[in-house]
Every structure is written in C-alpha cells, then in structure tokens.
Amino acid sequence: MPLSHQIMSRQIKLAAKPAGLPKESDFLIDQAPMPEPQDGQVLVKTTYLSVDPYMRGRITGVRTYADPVLPGDVMVGGVTGEVLASKYAGLAPGDAVVGYWGWQDHAAVPGAGLQKLNPQLAPISTALGILGMPGMTAYFGFREICQPKAGETVVVSGAAGAVGSAVGQIAKIMGCRAVGIAGEDDKIDYITKELGFDAGFNYKTTTDYFGKLKELCPNGIDCYFDNVGGAITDAVLANMNVFGRASICGQISQYNLEKPEPGPRILGLVLVKQLKVEGFIVSRFGPRFPEGIQQMAQWLKEGKLKYHEDIVEGFENTPKAFIDMLCGKNKGKMLVKA
Ligand SMILES: NC(=O)c1ccc[n+]([C@@H]2O[C@H](COP(=O)([O-])OP(=O)(O)OC[C@H]3O[C@@H](n4cnc5c(N)ncnc54)[C@H](OP(=O)(O)O)[C@@H]3O)[C@@H](O)[C@H]2O)c1
C-alpha cells in the first residue's frame, strides 16, 4: 500500500547549539512527506521516545565518543515503534520494535538495525529504560567495574534516576549496603522506602557532603557508582576504603557548564587508597545485553527489582521533557509517549 503523501511525518531538529542549559527554542518541529520503506527497510510509527543525559553531549557541536548533532539535523535517540509496513523479511506489520531513529514520529529504517520486542516479557516502554540502555548501564557498569561483594557499602549518585535507581537495587540483590544521593527529599523517600536502599541524602539541602557520607557510611565506602561528578564525587572518593572501586558512568553536574569547574586533584587519594577508578561507555557491553536483559527481566518477575517511568504525553513535548530531565524533574526513567 503506498503510504506516501497521505500524512506528513514530524521531525524534531536541533535549531541552535545550546549555551548552558538547553531551551525549547534550541529545537524546532519540521514536517516531511511520509517516508516509504525501500528493500530491507520497514516503516515504523514511533510509540515512545527516550530522553537521556548523553543527548546534551551530542548537541555541543563537538565529537565525543560519537558524532555531534548539528543545527538542522534530526535529534538522535532511542525510540520504540510499531511496524506499519515491511520490506524486511524478519519483521511484519504490527511488530513492536526498539531502535535508534531519533525524534521523528514516523521513519523508514533498515530492519536489520531494529530489535523486535516481546510484549509478553514486559511493557514495551521498558525497552528504553529498565530493560534497555539505562538498565544495561546499571547492570554491567556496576557489576563488571565495581565487582561488588556481599557486605560491602555501595554509594550511588543520581540515585533516583533511571540508571542510579537500578544500581542501588542490584547492590541490594548482591547483599551490599546501598546509600543513594539525589536532589529532592521525595526522591530520598522513594529510594529508601520503595526501592530498599539503606540510606540516602538530598544534596540540595546540605553542603557538607563529606560529613553526611561519614554519618551514613560508618564503615567507609567500598564501591561508588558515579552518575554526577563534581563536588559530590570529590566527597565520595575522600570517604572510600582502601582498594575501593569507582565506576564512572556519568558527570551530569558538568554537562551544562560553559567553563570546566576547577576540582581537587584526586590522584594522590587514588594512589594512597589504592582505588580502581574506571570510566565506561555501555556499548562496550553490547554483545552481552541479551544476558543482562534476561537477568533483569527475571528480577522484575520475582519482584526483586522495581522501576518507575515518568511519561510525558505528546511527541511535540520531547524537547521540554529532555530539559525537565536535565533539571531533575524525573523520578526513574523519563519518556515521551508519541
Ligand atoms: N556511561 C554510559 O554508557 C552511560 C549510559 C547511560 C547513562 N549514563 C549517565 O548516567 C547518568 C544518569 O543517566 P540517567 O539516564 O539515569 O538519567 P536520570 O538519572 O534518570 O536523569 C538525570 C538526573 O540527573 C540529576 N542531576 C541533574 N543535574 C544534576 C547536578 N548538577 N548534580 C547532580 N545531579 C544532577 C537529576 O536528579 P536529581 O534530582 O537527583 O538532581 C536528574 O533527574 C548520566 O550522567 C548519564 O550521562 C552513562
């Protein structure tokens, strides 16, 4: 069935490289004729869009570990969708898929780059959260790099977000003591009362991070999962035990800064405490994602792992959802329902 020109497809493009915190006017909504799938492609209708901190790095105009999105380009991003038409043998109309076609409400994309979802396993939206990239970041980035052992103390920053909330729960499953840091009292209640973290504190209502960590981690800190960087991380590292391990996942406190923050020089501390501090990009564990998804899905089924999604309605609200996430308005995974 020819689908072209019946309706238009909407695309959200970068309008301008943001200075500091992005504004909604840094994005624009454009229209394009409905794409038609070519051989090997499928036409997908977007169902959920993910908004993630890494997107802030993509719109700085600088290549980091990936090419930048430039003004005029469609924003990149993980998305789920429903196949409307297929010229790819492995997918049929009605299939639910997850892929990386970015902020567009319809797209014609190579079927080979999509992963078919099983709606019986978990709700489709989880493919962008607990059973998707953020969940795999928590699962592999914590276990592989921190190598946690039962009885150890684990501190997680960004603890109420998509990645951090999963890390603390995995730490508990592994028999550790989990302490979280987040930016609202309500988030601390959520991680301690609903998710089973042992303790936590709001970094916006104290300036003495070092003292707070000493109080909440009387035996010192063995593992640190860092989502935020900056002064929080300086204080955590200063409380680490000898042979502690720190997994450097994200540095969100720095993403909107126009000038790098001067920081303490930590290598002397790393030396005398014999710490292992390692950064990672989750794609390095890509080949092992099926193993991570299977284990996390099992924990969900057993009730050992919980997740929360903040779902914003409306494709056109994606830039606002992205900015709100950067400002900490989300609990768990921030998503947009197209
Ligand atoms: N290495 C990788 O491969 C990889 C993969 C995925 C994610 N990440 C990183 O992991 C981190 C968490 O990602 P996510 O998707 O789970 O996001 P998220 O935690 O769900 O959302 C971002 C959170 O960051 C916190 N935040 C914002 N500004 C902050 C600041 N100045 N200081 C401290 N916290 C701040 C906010 O919570 P509060 O209310 O607590 O401030 C906000 O809710 C990010 O740094 C991201 O870049 C890395």
Annotate the secondary structure layout:
Blueprint: E1 8-14, E2 27-33, E3 41-50, H1 54-58, E4 79-86, E5 96-99, E6 106-110, E7 115-116, H2 133-146, E8 153-157, H3 162-173, E9 177-182, H4 185-194, E10 199-202, H5 209-216, E11 221-226, H6 230-238, E12 240-248, H7 267-272, E13 276-279, H8 289-301, E14 309-313, H9 318-326, E15 333-337
Parallel strand pairs: 8-9, 8-11, 9-10, 11-12, 12-13, 14-15
Antiparallel strand pairs: 1-2, 3-4, 3-6, 3-15, 4-5, 5-7
Can you walk through the features of this model?
With 338 residues, the chain is of the alpha/beta class. Helix content is 25%, strand content 26%. The strands form 3 sheets. Strands 3, 4, 5, 6, 7, 14 and 15 form a 7-stranded mixed sheet that branches. The longest helix has 14 residues, at 133-146. The relative contact order is 0.15. Mean pLDDT is 96; it is low at 1-5. It binds NADP nicotinamide-adenine-dinucleotide phosphate. NADP nicotinamide-adenine-dinucleotide phosphate is lined by residues 52-54, 134, 137, 158, 160-164, 182-184, 187, 227-228, 249-250, 252-253, 280-282, 325-326, 328, 330.
